[in-house]
Amino acid sequence: MVDISILMGSESDHAIANRVTKVLEETKYSFEVNVISAHRDPDKLEDHIANSDAKVYIAIAGLSAALPGVIASRTMKPVIGVPVSAKLGGLDALLSVVQMPPGVPVASVGIDNGANAAKLAIRILDLIE
Questions:
Q1: What is the pLDDT of residue 12?
Q2: Could you identify which of 8, 46, 55, 98 might form a hypothetical disulfide with 60, taking C-beta atoms 3.0 to 4.6 angstroms apart as the criterion?
Q3: CA-CA distance, 97 to 71, in Å (whole number)?
Q4: Would you call 40 exposed, middle or buried from its count of C-beta atoms within 10 A (0-12, 13-18, 19+)?
Q5: For position 87, what pLDDT does the model report?
Q6: How far apart are CA 88 and CA 17, in angstroms?
Q7: CA 125 remoteness from chain centre
Q8: Would you state the torsion angle of the CA atoms of residues 61, 6, 22, 85, taken in this order, to the nearest 10 degrees?
Q9: Alpha carbon separation from 63 to 27, 85, 113 (Å, rounded)
Q10: What is the DSSP code string of 65-118?
Q11: Is 129 helix (H, G, I), strand (E, B) or coil?
Q12: Hey, is 32 helix, strand or coil?
């Protein structure tokens, strides 16, 4: 069983994922890290979400930043989006993460702020533990 599933849309997002794991390594919570693109691997993402026992998802994505929203549309578990500064200083990704349609909630942290995503996941888990 894993507490937090950290997903990134691209291999280039590893630096942000490292900021997440650095914080989580100091806690009692377990985590996994995977690269699964909502655009390039939709079936793999669907399978991961359907079979994951994670309690919280952290989704790291740049550009169109579809990953957090796709995850949130497929699960009732909390999803934290981390917009990445791949282009336009990350503003495009930030706007994508925070502009979810009704019924598809995604929490968002600041651009490239993987540490805050980890800290928010910890707070969520502390409430349900």
A1: 94
A2: 8
A3: 11
A4: exposed
A5: 85
A6: 20
A7: 15
A8: 0
A9: 31, 8, 16
A10: -HHHHHHHHH-SS-EEEEE--SSGGGHHHHHHHH-PPTT---EE--TT-HHHHH
A11: coil
A12: strand
CA 74/CA 92 separation, integer angstroms: 23
- Residues in the chain predicted with pLDDT less than 50, given as ranges, are none
Q: Tokens 């791949």 appear where?
A: 86
Whether the Cβ atoms of residue 107 and residue 123 lie closer than 8 Å to each other: no
As given in the structure block, the two tokens for residue 11 are 């291999």
Task: Measure the CA–CA gap between 38 and 24, rounded to whole angstroms.
Answer: 24
Structure tokens at 21: 């794991």
Taken as a whole, the chain contains a residue count of 129
Q: Order of strands across the sheet with 107-108?
A: 31-35, 4-8, 56-61, 79-83, 107-108
